[in-house]
Amino acid sequence: MRNSFPVLDYDREAADWHAKERARLSAGGRTPPFVDSQIAAIACVNGLTLATSNMGHFRAFQGLEVESWA
After folding, report:
1. Residue 6 is assigned to a structural domain of this protein
2. What is the CATH number of the domain that holds 17?
């Protein structure tokens, strides 16, 4: 079965972004959920806008464009 939409990898660039952002946020006492951080990383390094119904989980990431799905 073929996907009707692209599937983006969690690659080294995303992992590097993820590590830096988690460290920055954790240092400020705002450790985000691990999986949300991975999703944010994939979106950010691919220059995408992340659409979500839970803006609070993604608002603190720097360089990530977030838009409400609701």
Report:
1. no
2. 3.40.50.1010
| Enclosing H/E stretch for 5 | none
Q: Which domain holds residue 16?
A: 12-68
DSSP letter assigned to residue 57: G
Taking the chain, what is the end-to-end CA distance rounded to the nearest angstrom? Answer: 30
Per-residue pLDDT tens over the stretch 2-52: 768 889 999 999 999 999 999 999 999 999 999 999 999 999 999 999 999
Q: What is the pLDDT of residue 6?
A: 85
Q: Are 41 and 10 in contact (CB under 8 A)?
A: yes
| Amino acid, res. 3 | N
Measured between alpha carbons, how far is 8 from 45 in angstroms, rounded to an integer? Answer: 10
